Amino acid sequence: MHVSHLSLSDFRSWTAVDVELAAGSTALIGANGQGKTNLVEALGYVATLSSHRVASDAPLVRAGAERAVVRTRVERDGRSTLVELEINPGRTNRARVNRGPVPRAREVVGILRTVLFAPEDLALVRGDRSERRRFLDDLLVSSAPRYAGVRADYDRVLKQRNALLKTAFLARRSGGGDMRTLDVWDAHLARCGADLLSARLRLVEALRPRIATAYAAVAVGGDGTRGETEVDYRSSLGEAMPSGPADREVLAAAMLSELARVRPQEVERGVSLVGPHRDELVLGLAGLPVKGYASHGESWSFALALRLASYELLKADGGEPVLVLDDVFAELDTGRRDRLALLVAGAEQVLVTAAVPADVPEALAGSRYDVHEGTVTHVR
Questions:
Q1: Per residue in 131-170, pLDDT tens?
Q2: Quick one: 120-317 is in which CATH superfamily?
Q3: In sequence order, which residues have a C-beta less than 8 Å from that of residue 134 and are 6 or more positions away?
């Protein structure tokens, strides 16, 4: 899989731009603030319908414009697919595939797969647990697009249930309140939550050995002398979490039971205390948590290992993703830079952004574009 064309209208800093791309390595070179990251951010948006930099769509639309449009042509297995996304903050986004409209924008998810490395990836190991949950869910959607719907359904149910809990709290203070409606939303939350939880558990099992291999390769060139990685999923179900493999029905029953147990606390606090939105992906190295104990270099290596493991997982699933390395090499020491470059050089398409040509390793020296003052110029 590779992207052969990218076109933007009123996306971020770009009024309009068209870029022809090819398989292999491509470097986008430009000083900070010239818009090179905006180009690869647009590709990530087509792949996941979200940005790796912001939580909402509004910042993606150029100041003064009403909407942004992203068009990209994806080549896969001898077929060419044109994907067009119209981003309308505060309104419904629209999508077209090969010039034909699709009912919902999320139906384009899966046409393009990307794995993006960025400086923000340090938050995967050093940041809040929500960053690691998002990492898992974004990867789920990339590997199986139906989980975009599961994720959206869960978020909708959670929002409705939290609103109802706040209402229940006020009703109890006044001596009234009918909790039967809450029972209905408990069932909805357990059903959607079990679907998401079951998928996350399977994903973590698949990622665990790949993360270990990738960390050894990036950190120490494969000799594994700096400690073994540990990757575990910690559920908010606590002791109610079934031991061993569990199907969705078992997980849903466990979630319903735990929701019943903690309902008094939930009503008192007005929030849902049980479900995938409270879970944690626990990362360890040599018996210690990565967060708070790992060095800067070890943290970077672990973050890179998470992305490399994602790439290997998607590749094994039958659709090699486009690799995007956004200003990553400037953050790495020479050893990690060279090892990462050699690991990804064989990918079908690698897009690298950098402030200066010297930040691009020789192993990834392919096509080059200069990004400067609103233009993208092909240099070689």
A1: 999 999 999 999 998 998 999 999 999 999 999 998 877 7
A2: RecF/RecN/SMC, N-terminal domain (1.20.1050.90)
A3: none
